[in-house]
Amino acid sequence: MITLTAEQARRIAVRAxxxxxxxxxxxxxxxxxxEDTLYYTxxxxxxxxxxxxxxxxxxxxxxxxxxxxxxxxxARRRLDERVAEKIEEA
Length: 90
Known about the structure:
By secondary structure, the chain is an all-alpha fold. The protein has one domain. It has three helices and no strands. The chain has helices spanning 6-18, 27-57, 62-89.
């Protein structure tokens, strides 16, 4: 079981509102959301890498590949932020 501080729970609830998601109904849901933020951030980075590879194999125009590189850089930046948050919380 994961234990969250009130501040961590508040941050997660605020993020949920910003994402236009329903408010967590219980502390268990808040803990689940907390675990998922890192998972889904990793998933976004992997999807961006896969899409870049797919575009390169299909020999897409450089501009499209360049745009995907920017998407990948953003996904990796967000992943680095989430990992840093998890380390700080540990």
